[in-house]
Design brief:
disordered N terminus
Amino acid sequence: MVCLNLIKEKRDTKLIKEALKVLGKDNFALIIHAGSFPAKDGEDTGFGSYNSEAGHKLIDYTSGIFNALQLGPAGKTKASDSSPYCGTIFSGNPLFIDLKQLTEKEWGNILSDATFNKIVSDNPKQNSGRTAYSYIHKAQKEALKEAWINFRTSKLLKKEFEKFKKENKFWLDNDALYEALSIENGNDYWYSWKNETDKNLLNPKSEDEKKIFAQRIDEIKKKYDDEIEFYKFCQFVLERQNEETKKYALEHNIKMIADRQVAFSDRDAWAYQSLFMPGWYLGCPPDYFSKDGQAWGFPVMDPDKMFKKDGSLGEGGILMKNLYKKMFKENPGGVRIDHIVGLIDPWVYKAGKKPMPEQGAGRLYSSPEHPELSKYAIAKNEDLDWTLESDKEKRVKTLSDEQIKLYGRLIEKVVIAAAKECGLDKNAIVCEDLGTLTNPVDAVMKKYELQGMRLTQFVVPEKPEHPYRCKNITEHVWNMVGTHDNNPIAMWAESMINTHEGYLHAKNLVEDLFADAENKDDIIVRLTQDKDYLTFVKLVELFASKARNVQMFFTDYFQIKETYNTPGTSGDQNWSLRLPNNFEDITPIDLHAILKAAIIARGKDFASKHATLIEKLGR
């Protein structure tokens, strides 16, 4: 605790807050996925959790500097895939349950100290700064099974458990049933189940099937009653711990921002398969990360099931709205929507094919010439620039107000409506619009005044008007140097040293941030040769920009030179990086110096108004 106090004293949070206010920043969020949270020494089970004591300690640490934590998707992930972006849309990830709490009085000591200590001692990634995903996925389930057996025979929290099951019945029953069927069929990948009835239990196509399927559901529920209740118990424990953590965070003036992935998990695809387009998947066209496009394999919501002919919500639209209402209710700090293009102008491809135009892929609502997708097209033939291929961002060149409204139906009637019903406004919606930004997406973002993102690491220095360049960044966005899919800014800076591209970046930075400097050429030379200085100036750029919101990935703040995820690749390194347990001893970025430089970068007049603050930051 002494160490933490010294760091806080050194950081002078009051001064940092004042500087952020002067620079017009409404929000400063630390990006860290739940699995990356640190552990307390002697309590490292192999996976991070914001619900743990160390998780709360990180909240303590961030309060006063940041006012929000941007988390990753919170859904239940598969044993074979640690990507949080493939998790369930309703069920939470049991790996985020803090097992230590279950050994304590509040939970009736339903988990033994011996079991907990063994999990910790057997953790193969102890103090490595990495998760032990395969290990803890199995060990956590075994520990929770022990806790369930003891919970079942106690009287503790029984009323709360029954209330939870009743309030969440609309999604919990389906997800728990899938768990039972996974046991029955020997795996949790329903596409490979041999029992065809089990594949379609919630998707009967006739009255006879409805009766047969209902009988099968009753049979499974009776046979696997304990497993079904165990699944619900895990979700109950997680929600209860989550509520306590979010309450703790709010008491420390930290908002939790959730993350809604574009994907639907296998469990979701099974439960709601009647709402998806048969034979089509969501993906990404050829881009920076993949020349053949990214074949995500996620089902595509059927447009005919999203809305009725009169424009009201269909079954699919109601499902999506219920999902967002749940997320906004649980996360008053807001929701980040991953790949907002997926809700406005999604790229879809055929099963068994690559997500490439020449293999039949296209934009669901922007392909009037496509033999199969044309019936969903909002854009007409005359709206297209025929000199551009179907995957190009600017292909749709003209749009009427009516067309923009149609492209934005999901945003207006589902996302914004859900936020409003939870007492939030559009500022609670954070739109990940990085990478592909088609004209329809851009038009919808502007019409509904949604907050997008600017990623300064990916500015194209040859384009003076590039939207990621400091001078072009507007107020109503979230600004950042990188996300979970990019190298830390220090690694990026290292790759720029003594290169022509690095020179172009340096030239732009000097034009945007050193307008009053007399030694511009010297600064350019230093930026092209000194990786630490280039890193520093790129961080200054974040705060000097007009953006009212700033996000920073934990690797950038704590100066960790490791990449969290590399898109288009797989392996144990992806999604496994954690904040070290001794994070309080790590020297973070010099925020005082960065904020001081950002104020000076705003120009002489601005700096003179805040001379006293500059002097204090310089101390």
